[in-house]
Amino acid sequence: MRWRIVIGAVLCMAIWDRQGRADEDEWRRVMLQGAAQEKAGLYAAAAATYQEAVRLMEPAPDDQGLSLALNSLARAEDELGQFAEAERLYRRSLAAAAKIGGHENPIYAVVLGNLGSLLVEHGKAAAGTVMLRESLAIHVRILPAGDHRLASVSNGLAEALLREGKYREAERRLNEGVAILEKGPPESSRELAISLSNLAVIKRAQGKNQEAERLGERSLEIFEREFGPDHPLLVQGLNNLAIVYGFTHRREKADATFGRALEIAEKSLGTGHPTYGMVLLNYSEFLRVSGRKEEAKTLAARSKDVLRESALRNGTGMTVDVSSLRGK
Questions:
Q1: In sequence order, what are the residues at sequence separation of 6 or more whose Cβ sits closer than 8 angstroms to the Cβ of residue 267?
Q2: pLDDT tens-place string over residues 251-298
Q3: pLDDT per residue over 110-159, tens digit each?
Q4: Could you tell me the CA-to-CA distances from 16 to 10, 24, 51, 197 in Å, in that order?
């Protein structure tokens, strides 16, 4: 399940502690507004707001404020499926963060991890994994043991390991992260839900389908409690859970869960978003193995069109990760 470090609004203000100029006060107000829009799943509105925060810092750039604003803007563009633009913004943010105090600072570590995760997700796994490991190493050096932010970065590395088929190390890192996040502050619930959903993927790959179902359902409960029933963050968790239901032969539940994921994705992200295409592709595979071959062909063709258009728009290959139901 997709992961990025979200620097909370309060923490963002604490990190960026300069005061005095009117534009700095306005920057704080704008960043808080963008964070609220992002939490509500209003990514296009958040992107426009974060763009204003970037503009406020550019005339006489403060490297901390500029880096934080660029990182937030990149994350919003990432959620909108604009991956090429997100990568460009993350790299700008990383360059600004490096001017603050080299590489041993929390902003640099956060942005490096976000960039690494983006690269892994879109076909540059080797470079991305190196960045994620470096980000985690920096966090280990600068944060106290047991800090929930360590678990967040570890979860990002676990996702990269999942894509490489390194399930043992991924499972170990996720279990360590869950142990920390279970005791973490309320703002760590997002990362806990993502960790549990990723653990469900591993359990499914191990053939432990009942355990995978339990983890997936708990992850979804946390997301719904924190963000409501229609937030776009639910889409990939619903996708993962629907696949598990398919493996446990609960076909009606799988069908309904895929349908709910598509409905939320269509309303909140749009039918041209690669996440929508990814869910369509997984749903088509479920329909195929369920004997509904004509429906499966139609959805598979639609999904390939969506993913192809996204790849062309972003200048990448069709690297969207798909959790196949083959071998069921």
A1: 230
A2: 999 999 999 999 999 999 999 999 999 999 999 999 999 999 999 999
A3: 999 999 999 988 888 889 999 999 999 999 999 888 888 888 888 889 88
A4: 10, 10, 18, 33
Copy the structure tokens of residue 95: 């360059």
Put simply, whether the predicted model's pTM sits higher than 0.85 gets the answer yes
CA 295 to chain centre: 30
3-state secondary structure 188-214: HHHHHHHHHHHHHHHHHHCCCHHHHHH
Q: What is the CATH number of domain 230-328?
A: 1.25.40.10
Distances from the Cα of 248 to the Cα of 61, 171, 214, 245, 253, angstroms: 55, 21, 12, 5, 10
DSSP track, 248-297? TT-HHHHHHHHHHHHHHHHHHT-TTSHHHHHHHHHHHHHHHHTT-HHHHH
Give the up-direction half-sphere exposure of residue 251: CA atoms within 13 A in the CB hemisphere.
Answer: 10
CA atoms within 13 A on the CB side of 229: 3
Q: Would you list the domain boundaries of the chain?
A: 230-328
